């Protein structure tokens, strides 16, 4: 495993710190990443957030990161080292960091910790995530309009609620405009493994999928689609340069404002633990620019779907919805609560795969 740390400082930011805190030196903020930064993907988007903190707050902060940290025991070691190194605020950015982050937070009660996509909190440990499933539903509508075979492929890492939400929302979006759609799922059992992701994409294409999407961290799916002339919808960040002819759009994540706001809260002494779950409305989830292959009518339809999701007048998980076995899971006139969505452990009708 390769670990590296980099510290970047930008221009000074004035008036952000109380006099006493300012005299103590810059606020030290660290980030832990599950994969290499690269130029696209989950980790890259968090790295853009870190850079945004530097650009906004300048010499008032000193940020660092450790990339490519495996989930489990190694993550605990890295997080503890960052705590003993004197960091004031530590962001851990993968679901599998949840228990290690909680354990270290309990050992360092005076420090602040934030964990992405988890659900375990403490007085000094907050959680945050985005409503990725909103973007998945919107791109499902796009895919449903663009498919010819009505077979779609989904390359997925692990069967945890966050991933299942996306698969289900994508399927519901696609079937809302094309009820014949079937979504085939292949698991990679890894967040970042370009070889496995490429093999999964090839398998799905061989199985008749004419649109692929993924919940993994590399650009392998977009590259596979480009090479084989199959449309793709990327995840995490804009990957159009890896699929200039075939990558239709991407569900992207924007952490910049969140990170800047949370760092400012520590500086101001107003930081509190809690849980943030933002979507289209908050700008934490967006779609990348559409490929030229997407017809104007489809663009307008998807944009309209985004608008109603942002306004809250439509919800991806609103009944009637059947589960994979055809049993009513969400009755007509009802919608899943946030708790139900966060605990999701089932597939909707139209998904071909096992949990």
Q: Topology as H/E string?
A: HEHEHEHEEHEHEHEHEEHEEHEEHE
Task: Give me the number of helical elements.
Answer: 11
CATH level-two architecture of the largest domain: 3-Layer(aba) Sandwich
| Major sheet: arrangement of strands | 12-10-9-8-6-7-15
CATH topology of the largest domain: Rossmann fold
Low-confidence stretches: 1-23
- Determine the strand fraction and express it as a percent band: 15-25%
Question: How widely separated are the two ends?
Answer: 29 Å
Structural class: alpha/beta
Q: Can you give the helix content as a percent range?
A: 25-40%
Q: Could you state the CATH homologous superfamily of the largest domain?
A: Response regulator
Mean pLDDT: 93
- Domain count: the total is 2
CATH class of the largest domain: Alpha Beta
- Main sheet characteristics: 7 strands, mixed
Shape: globular
**Strand segment tally:** 15
Give the structure's gist in a few sentences.
37% of the residues lie in helices and 20% in strands. It is of the alpha/beta class and 355 residues long.
What is the fold's blueprint, element by element?
Blueprint: H1 19-23, E1 27-32, H2 42-57, E2 61-66, H3 73-84, E3 89-92, H4 98-107, E4 112-116, E5 125-130, H5 132-146, E6 151-156, H6 161-177, E7 182-187, H7 194-206, E8 211-215, H8 220-228, E9 231-236, E10 247-253, H9 256-268, E11 275-278, E12 285-287, H10 296-311, E13 321-322, E14 328-330, H11 338-342, E15 351-352
Parallel strand pairs: 1-2, 1-3, 3-4, 4-5, 5-11, 6-7, 6-8, 7-15, 8-9, 9-10
Antiparallel strand pairs: 10-12, 13-14
Helix pairs in contact: 2-9, 3-4, 5-6, 5-10, 7-8
């Amino acid at each position: 495993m390769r670990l590296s740390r980099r510290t970047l400082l930008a221009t000074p930011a004035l008036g952000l710190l109380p006099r006493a805190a300012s005299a103590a030196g810059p606020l030290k903020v660290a980030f832990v990443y599950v994969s290499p930064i690269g130029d696209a993907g989950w980790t890259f988007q968090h790295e853009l957030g870190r850079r945004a903190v530097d650009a906004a707050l300048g010499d008032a902060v000193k940020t660092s990161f450790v990339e490519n940290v495996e989930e489990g025991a190694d993550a605990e070691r890295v997080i503890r080292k960052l705590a003993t190194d004197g960091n004031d605020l530590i962001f851990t950015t993968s679901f599998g960091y949840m228990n290690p982050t909680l354990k270290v937070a309990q050992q360092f009660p005076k420090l602040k910790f934030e964990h992405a996509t988890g659900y375990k909190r403490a007085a000094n440990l907050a959680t945050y995530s985005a409503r990725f499933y909103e973007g998945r539903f919107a791109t499902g509508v796009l895919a449903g309009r663009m498919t010819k075979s009505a077979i779609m492929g989904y390359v997925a890492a692990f069967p945890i609620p966050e991933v299942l939400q996306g698969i289900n929302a994508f399927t519901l979006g696609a079937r809302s405009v094309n009820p014949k759609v079937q979504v085939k799922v292949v698991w990679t059992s890894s967040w970042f493994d370009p070889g496995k992701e490429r093999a999964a994409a090839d398998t799905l294409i061989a199985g008749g999928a004419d649109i692929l999407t993924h919940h993994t961290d590399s650009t392998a799916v977009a590259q596979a689609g480009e090479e084989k002339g199959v449309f793709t919808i990327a995840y995490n960040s804009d990957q159009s340069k890896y699929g200039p002819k075939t990558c239709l759009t991407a569900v992207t994540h924007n952490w910049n404002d969140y990170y800047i706001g949370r760092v400012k809260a520590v500086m101001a002494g107003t930081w509190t633990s809690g849980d943030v779950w933002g979507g289209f409305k908050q700008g934490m989830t967006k779609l990348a620019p559409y490929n030229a292959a997407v017809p104007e009518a489809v663009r307008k339809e998807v944009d309209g779907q985004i608008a109603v999701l942002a306004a809250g007048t439509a919800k991806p998980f609103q009944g009637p919805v059947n589960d994979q076995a055809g049993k009513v899971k969400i009755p007509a006139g009802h919608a899943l609560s946030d708790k139900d969505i966060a605990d999701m452990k089932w597939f909707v009708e139209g998904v071909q795969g096992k949990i």
